[in-house]
Design brief:
It is built from 16 helices and 17 strands. The protein is α/β, with parallel strands linked by helices and about 500 residues long. β14 (about 385-390), α13 and β15 form a beta-alpha-beta unit.
């Protein structure tokens, strides 16, 4: 099993118009997004076969049909139907259903086509690209017999108006990197291995990397992070800072700082989790994978924005030195914390990471974390929660969720919630004794480690995992967050609104 994916995914080729009979004969599958109309109007080879497939029965939005064409390759023909006003999430979900027959058929070379020629055609094609990358991706596994599955090697994109293919590929690749890293078992992706991964990726993508060891963090006063890490059997935990600058002459201060929770395994600590609660806690580092993958995609696209990523990487282990309830620790910004529950470790490591990241004076900080079960209970695992200290950013966040198909809901962050985490012995309690509204209280806690003059967004990744997958992603580990983050940053509304007084 490899720490990093072996390939960057299939090759994307732009084509104008529709595939010819000769081109079709070289394809394993052709996927067509079609409108809900009685007639199937398209300039396609074997049009009679396509019309026969279309006329089987009345279709509704989201319907997918497939058959084989009468050529030597027996090319798989797939039709998916959508309304003109379909949302990005609906398009991704439809695209995911269209790719299922291709996965079962083990295709290597496919083409995609949208029958409409309107302003939204690139969105529909991009959804198919995202689904193809997701379904064609081999998740990490270690079996005695190697997989015989054929890899998807090529996607030909047909249409009059095509999407931004480099951006589509970078976004899909970022999502797959999140999925890969999140799926790695904890005996393979421990803190030391994660540091090695970061070094490899930094060198590959021209990023700078600084690793803050526990000794360095002690000097920086990062008592909240160190409280969590001290229970680990190895002294290899740390906070990583990776930086991307569009040019060598770029200013040192970042425009945007991404922060990610990287708990590579979470036992719950002294407040030990039960079996079901602990079973999948190797995925508790998904927030760090989102921040990392987003940074890499921005570097690949040479985005004109200076970005840092700070990743809090440690285990939350049980042992004789593990931190305990009622301890009082001091964070890097001087705020003292009364520990209530050791399984609220995510907000502890983020507290110091946010405080240290804030010292670089970014315009805006966005953090990603699988932080609370309360957010899952509030929203289910179909969408994720967002919080912000700037009211003007709330519509920007929700719009990015709608546009990317990774839906988010903005929660309240009113000051009076602080009474639930008041402490008699410290500046703040780590959490409340009960779990009521814990996603809001966790955000109120984190806000204390971001100066008021810095715009801040907190993303509680309720959708990092979902049984049966989500939208276009077929696996339980969804990679949620990278699409959202890239839309938020590349569409430039985040920085524009964050800079307003």
């Amino acid at each position: 099993m490899k720490l990093l994916p072996e390939t960057a995914g299939p090759r994307l080729i732009a084509r104008r118009g529709a595939p010819s009979a000769r081109a079709l004969a070289g394809l394993d599958a052709l996927l067509v997004m079609a409108p809900l109309t009685r007639q199937f109007n398209a300039s396609l080879p074997q049009l009679a076969r396509w019309r026969q497939l279309h006329a089987r029965e009345a279709a509704s939005a989201g319907t997918v049909r497939h058959s084989r064409l009468a050529n030597p390759r027996q090319t798989l023909a797939v039709i998916g139907y959508c309304n003109a006003e379909a949302s990005a999430f609906e398009l991704l979900s439809l695209a995911g259903r269209m790719l299922r027959p291709c996965t079962e058929a083990r295709v290597e070379k496919i083409a995609i086509l949208d029958l409409r020629s309107d302003a939204d055609s690139p969105k529909r094609l991009e959804a198919l690209i995202a689904a193809a990358f997701a379904h064609g991706f081999e998740m990490p596994a270690e079996r005695s017999k190697p997989s015989t599955r054929k890899a998807l090697r090529q996607i030909e994109v047909f249409g009059a108006t095509l999407p931004d293919l480099p951006r589509a590929k970078a976004t899909a690749t970022a999502t797959n990197l999140v999925r890969h890293l999140t799926a790695l078992p904890p005996n393979l992706l421990n803190a030391a291995a994660y540091r090695k991964v970061l070094g490899t990726l930094a060198k590959r993508h021209g990023l700078t990397l600084q690793w803050h060891t526990e000794a360095m963090l002690l000097k920086l006063g990062a008592g909240a992070f160190l409280a969590v890490s001290r229970g680990n059997p190895q002294r290899d935990a740390g906070i990583a800072k990776l930086s991307y600058r569009p040019t060598r002459a770029s200013k040192a201060a970042p425009d945007i700082t991404l922060v990610g929770k990287g708990i590579v395994f979470d036992t719950g600590g002294t407040n030990l989790k039960p079996h079901r609660g602990m079973l999948d806690m190797h995925t508790d580092m998904s927030g760090s994978a989102v921040a990392l993958s987003t940074l890499i995609a921005l570097a690949e696209l040479k985005a004109p924005v200076a970005v840092d990523a700070w990743l809090a990487i440690t285990e939350n282990s049980i042992g004789p030195h593990a931190y305990r309830p009622q301890e009082i620790v001091r964070a890097a910004n001087g705020v003292t914390i009364q520990v209530i529950h050791t399984d609220a470790e995510g907000r502890m490591v983020l507290a110091d990471t946010l405080a240290l990241a804030a010292r670089t004076k970014p315009c805006v900080i966005v953090d990603f974390a699988t932080l609370t079960g309360a957010c899952v209970y509030a929203l289910t695992d179909r969408m994720s929660g967002v919080f912000t200290n700037r009211d003007s950013l709330a519509p920007v966040l929700e719009q990015a969720g709608r546009a990317s198909g990774e839906r988010v809901w903005n929660f309240p962050l009113y000051q009076d919630y602080d009474t639930d985490i008041d402490s008699r012995v410290a500046d703040v309690a780590q959490c409340a004794v009960d779990g009521k509204g814990d996603h809001i209280l966790a955000a109120r806690f984190l806000r204390k480690f971001v100066p008021e003059d810095i715009a801040w967004v907190h993303v509680d990744l309720a959708s990092a995992t979902r049984g049966g997958g989500l939208a276009h992603v077929p696996t339980e580990i969804t990679g949620f967050g990278a699409r959202f983050a890239l839309d938020l940053i590349l569409n430039q509304q985040l920085l524009r609104q964050a800079r307003l007084p």
